[in-house]
Amino acid sequence: MARFLWLSLITVLAAQTSSRAAAEPPVTLYVQFIRGTNEPKPKQPNWTLIGPKLSKRLSPVFKWQNYWEVSQQAVAVQPAKVSMVPLDESRRLELELVNAKEIEMRVYQNRNLTRKSRQQIHSSHMEIIGGSRERETCWFVVVRHDKPQSQDGE
Question: What pLDDT, in 10s, does the model give residues 69-88?
């Protein structure tokens, strides 16, 4: 009888925990896939120059003359679920809310984990994960709360 009561208690607690997680609203994050290069024109016609806020963060630290936004996506990250974001033909980003204050970001290339970062969630914080592609370019994944702006401020 005591065993049955313990199992019932565990089942009720597990149900309450999962319903609480489901009741928490998703966190909306913006993911940008960026290429850094010295080329004056983008490789693809749909690439655009990054906005001024991100440019101020990247330009003093890295050597590239231009930073092109390859893609931008708004992602609703739900507690206890992994959100997958395709970046290009070989890379993807996984976002997971580890708890109410932390997010884990994992970048995969060809199914291999290449970068992993766990950060506190701050509304003004911007997480930048990067790597080199070759000598002429590099790539960055930017995860942020605020909606990115284009170079012309729109």
Answer: 999 999 999 988 999 999 99
Rounded CA Rg of the chain = 20
Pick the closest to residue 35 from 47, 23, 27, 20 (CA basis).
47
- Residue 140 in any domain: the answer is yes
Query: Residues 106, 93: contact at Cβ < 8 Å?
Result: yes
Provide the residue range defining the domain that includes 132: 26-144
49 in Cβ contact with 67 (< 8 Å): yes
Q: Is residue 3 part of a domain?
A: no
Beta-strand relationship, 112-120 and 126-132 = unpaired
Number of domains in the chain: 1
CA of residue 29 relative to chain centroid, distance:
7
Q: List the beta bridge partners of residue 130.
A: 140
